[in-house]
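Sync notes, pocket subgroup
Present: LS, DG
LS reminded everyone that the earlier model was apo-only. Rerun requested with farnesyl diphosphate included. Inputs:
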Amino acid sequence: MFKNTQDNQQLNVDNIPAHVAIIMDGNGRWAQKRHLPRIAGHKRGMETVKTITKVASDIGVKVLTLYAFSTENWKRPHDEVSYLMGLPVKFFNDFVPDLIKNNVQVRVMGLIDQLPAQTQKAVNDAVKDTADCTGMVLNFALNYGSRLDMTMAVQKIGRQVKAGILDPNKITDQTIDDNLMTSFLGQLADPDLLIRTSGEERISNFLLWQIAYSELVFTDVLWPDFDKSVFEQMILEYQHRDRRFGGIKTSK
Ligand code: FPP
């Protein structure tokens, strides 16, 4: 079945990527271009998060994972880090009622207990307040790094081996999946589509294990300018890809 996009193109509603992950880049450059402080870009970027959450949920995305703060982002100036830590508080204060209305469940992955107390509270409250929502999962990667995630998974697996409850010869892909921060997503842990905005074409320590067969789509659009129309373009691009998962094309 097809539906018209905002730009009058045909979106196949039977081929919507179940899990979309986004590296939201370009907030700083958006602000710089307007002679505004970098935090103005982050503020605007937060509004984009609201828009894209709604659009993704409406078109039938099941999991939307957003890279909001990486384990490397602590290197930024103190004022910027502090502003970024305040954003979830503002975002959830404003937006949880809409999330509930749209049946969106909030989840977070990353080292949450290292965040300032008020950020932790905002995040934990949002997770609790939306726990009964059964629609799209809005998964924030916050103080997240994929190498850290994999290192911690190896440590957990190592402890199970040491305790004698896991035979090293029985370790499979599934064992690794089960010990990563995305394990709660089950079959939906691996993104079908990974988007990065702002013209940069790198992965920046995001979901390295999980994107083994993801379709990667890049756009020059800066995150604060990303909107429904650009998002639909990215989904259309995904729908033109031929996903083979290492196999060969099968005729339909
Ligand atoms: C990258 O742009 C963006 C970030 C490091 C922060 C992303 C955060 C948001 C979009 C807001 C998140 C909202 C919530 C609700 C938590 P950049 O600063 O690296 O941009 P630049 O490359 O142009 O400098």
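DG: The first helix runs from residue 27 to 33.
LS: Helices lie at 27-33, 38-59, 78-101, 117-129, 146-162, 173-179, 228-240.
Action: DG to write up.
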